[in-house]
Amino acid sequence: QVRLVESGGGLVQPGGSLRLSCVTSGITFNIYAMGWYRRAPGKQRELVATITAGGRTNYADFVKGRFTISRDIGQKMVHLQMNSLKPDDTAVYYCNARRNNDYWGQGTQVTVSS
Question: What φ, ψ does residue 29 adopt, rounded to 5°?
């Protein structure tokens, strides 16, 4: 059974930082591309950042220079370090594992507000 479980969301003031984590089970982690997506209220889900099985990273333009995706192959985890957070970053953030299939976590809420 494949499971992706996110953690690390919460309420943070503008300009603050959060680190999201996603622990996986049931997949051969090192051959999967991993990613973070988000869905803001009233909007469609959008890509935030991905990291390929080979370790190549890709970021949405709106997070470049502020967010960093990383992975721990031994722990089968992927992280998203989010700095300089803005109110527009408020969303539910989802972890994704992709190879032949897409697997999703349940999401973690990030709220950026003063």
Answer: -55, -40
3-state secondary structure of 77: strand
pLDDT tens-digit series, residues 78-108: 999 999 999 999 999 999 999 999 999 999 9
What is the average pLDDT across 14-33?
96
Long-range CB contacts (< 8 A, 24+ apart) of 50-53?
Answer: 50/96, 51/78, 53/99
pLDDT at 95: 98
* Rounded Cα gap, residues 23 and 43, in angstroms: 26
Instruction: Give the pLDDT of residue 22.
Output: 98
Closest CA to 46 of 19, 17, 67, 75: 67
Encode burial over 46-80: b for 16+ CB neighbours within 10 A, e otherwise.
eebbbbebeeeeebeeebeeebebebeeeebbbbb
Q: At 24, list the tokens.
A: 């996986």
Query: Mean pLDDT of all residues in the chain?
Result: 97
- Cβ pair 34, 21 in contact under 8 A: no
Both tokens assigned to 80:
């998203």
